[in-house]
Amino acid sequence: MRKPLVNALRWLVFIAAVVILNFPVIATLVTSLKSEAEIMTNASLIIEAPTLDNYAAVFAMADRFDILHFLTNSLVASLIGSALAIALAFPAAYAMARFGVGRSWLLPLAVNLRAVPLIIFAIPIYLMYQQVGLLDTRFGLALILCLVNVPLVLVLFASSIADLPLEIEEAGRVDGAGTLRLLVYVVAPMSLNVVAASSVLAFIYSWNEFLFGLMLTTNSATPVSVGASFFFAASGGGVRWGVAAAVMILATLPPLILGLLMYRQIGRSMTAGAVKG
After folding, report:
1. Which of 174, 199, 240, 242 is deepest in the core (most CB within 10 A)?
2. Which helix (H) or strand (E) holds 55?
3. pTM of the model
4. Dist. CA 15–CA 23, nearest whole Å
5. C-alpha–C-alpha distance, residues 52 and 43, integer Å
């Protein structure tokens, strides 16, 4: 009897932790599935009459609040920004891990830059974007998202590449493979899990970026992280909490789904190099 009781207690603790840690998301989801009348009378997490009217109302407001436009901007900018970050950081991390290029100063600098508040760079970046015509463009937003994510993926790649067996690369060099060929055909295939996890992390951070989306876009390239805040002005006549909750849920779905699908790879990449044999 003891083992079933222990297992039941573990599940209770697990469920309680999940509910507590994710309470804001759960409460927002529940609110989005309630009618406006029920929201005013029922503040609990129990839904008496579930409805999708709030989601329908979001898409019906396309003339004032085009959420599909904002979602598309975020998707395009996040994908391009993540891909650029991976393309820049992977060869740089290989050079650090295998040849020691910049390992003593560039890697610590990248880590420290990631910890610096981004608001410090906002004004000079805005002025530069204004001069070169990148304001309110998807590519301009993707470019700054790339720069924001390079330090993160650089650290992940440098740690994982350092743990790869050097003998395989040495065998490739004996067969006549150059550095570029080794990087593409040997190191990259062995690092697919870390590349995938780093891409997902970069995408999630890009999707959630608010500051530069607010400063560098006005309409054409506005991401959903910024566009969602426009809803409160677009709704008119007071805040419709059910529709507002539906907007928040729609805005968080892509990174949430990616995180759930790739959580194992993300966990492994974050702990890569933490334990040495």
Report:
1. 242
2. helix 53-60
3. 0.84
4. 12
5. 18
